[in-house]
Amino acid sequence: MELNEWSGRIEGISAAYGEYFAVERTPEWVLLKLTEEVGELTQAYLASSGQGRNRGKSDDELRQDLEGEVADAFAMILVFARSAGIDIESALTTKWLPWEKFHADRAAGLAPEPLAHRWPEPSDDDSQASS
């Protein structure tokens, strides 16, 4: 199934959810719901990686929780993109796929190396100015 087809099907499920629970699915609600799902994904990851409470769940149950939360967060990204009028396949193609060629060229020695991303070393004048 193509991503835009997934988006349409998930949008239908989300719309039915809104109707069933009498939730007005405004753009703000969709973004807040996405934020909620990312929080739940974080919680599931922390539990499955041993960095959070496992609530007495087995490793298999923790893995199932993590997979479910990844699906929920991804679904809400699709719903959000659709509500914002974004064609997710086109957006991904435009934003991410050009980097395939760049990194292939880089691996072949044909692209520039990245600039160093660090703060300049402090000078003697800088240390005296903060005194």
UniProtKB/TrEMBL annotation:
CDD domains: NTP-PPase_u1. Signal peptide: none annotated. The keyword Repeat does not apply. Residues 26-93 form the NTP pyrophosphohydrolase MazG-like domain. The keyword Hydrolase applies. Residues 112-131 are annotated as: Disordered. This is Phosphoribosyl-ATP pyrophosphohydrolase. Residues 122-131 have a biased composition (Acidic residues). It holds the Pfam family MazG. Keywords: Hydrolase. It comes from Dermacoccus nishinomiyaensis. InterPro entries: MazG-like_dom. GO terms for molecular function: hydrolase activity. It comes from the Bacteria.
